[in-house]
Amino acid sequence: MSIRSSRYLVRDQRVYAFAIAVVIGGILGARAAHVIDNWPAYAGDPVRMISFAGGGIGTMGAPLGSTIAGLGAARLLRLPTGFMFDISVVGIALGEAIGRIGDIINGEHHGTACDGLWWCVRYTNPATLGQATPVHFIGLYDCLLMLAIFVVLYLSWRRVRGRPPEGRVFAGYLLLLGAGRFFESFLRLDPVVLAGLQQAQVLGLAYALAGAGLLVVLTMRTKSSQTTPKPLHKAVSNR
Questions:
Q1: Pairwise CA distance, residues 160 & 168, whole Å
Q2: What is the pLDDT of residues 124-157, one digit of tens each?
Q3: Is the pTM of this model over 0.70?
Q4: Residues β-bridged to residue 197
Q5: For residue 210, how far is the Cα from the chain centroid?
Q6: Do residues 65 and 71 lie in contact, with contact meaning Cβ atoms separated by under 8 Å?
Q7: pLDDT in tens, 165-215
Q8: How far apart are CA 235 and CA 201, in angstroms?
Q9: Residue ranges with strand state E in the chain
């Protein structure tokens, strides 16, 4: 979806190189978050840290890795950074929502006890990763959160695409993801890493604050621009 949306402005093959960089950066960031969150299991074994042995990723580390990789790729490929970041997070949000279906099936992400609510879930199959007692349906919560974020981002992008300053959709993604995961994590059973907060909550606060700050800056730029915005760019290609 992000590739198709990029054709609004960038009509050559550079978008594929950018997409690959963002995906790889996201995977590395997610792996780093997982290793840090489970440091006692990886300490003293650097090969296992980078080998993905036994799997394991922390999705809240992906935005940081993707952002770093995306900044480098946009600069190297001479792409409009704000525009590329905006279209990327729309597709990423949808992809994360779809990816959570697997978590729903295997019962991944342990939740706190949930009694008296009709949506509480209990996994009875010993082959799943879920808990045998009724708990909050974390996989479904994640799926619905990312689906809602996707809808908001897509509608926002349709409204602001090509209008200065770009990057507002990306800022909205950081704000919504960070705030959503911060509050949702109170229903998760993940390790506490700092001041009684889980890693997802610490990163969530950082993302939310960064997104809110970026939105304020970009909104101020919007108000200081022309009353009737005009498209910022024409379609570009790498000749």
A1: 8
A2: 877 777 788 899 999 999 999 999 999 999 999 9
A3: yes
A4: 194
A5: 14
A6: no
A7: 889 999 999 999 999 999 999 999 888 888 899 989 999 999 999 999 999
A8: 39
A9: 192-194, 197-198
DSSP string covering 43-62:
TT-HHHHHHTTT----GGGH
Spatial separation of the C-alpha atoms in residues 46 and 9, rounded to whole Å: 42
Q: Which two tokens stand for residue 229?
A: 């915005």
Residue 56 buriedness (CB in 10 A; 0-12 / 13-18 / 19+): middle
Give the Cα separation of 158 and 238 in Å (integer). Answer: 25
CB-based burial of residue 106 (10 Å sphere; 0-12 exposed, 13-18 middle, 19+ buried)? middle
Is 37 within 8 Å of 193 (Cβ atoms)?
yes
* Cβ-contact 139, 97 below 8 angstroms: no
Both tokens assigned to 21:
């960089």
Residue 216, Cβ neighbours under 10 Å: how many? 11
Q: Residue 54 is encoded by which pair of tokens?
A: 């036994």
Q: For tokens 């997802």, what's the residue? A: 200
Residue type, 229: P
List pLDDT tens digits, range 24-73: 999 999 888 888 887 887 887 777 777 766 667 888 899 999 999 999 99
Instruction: Give the Å distances, CA to CA, from 112 to 12, 38, 56, 83, 232.
Output: 48, 20, 21, 39, 48
Residue 201 to residues 84, 129, 225, Cα–Cα distance (Å): 27, 22, 36
Beta carbons within 8 Å of 22's beta carbon, 6+ residues apart: 66, 69, 70, 73, 88, 92
Look up tokens 């199959």; give the residue: 125
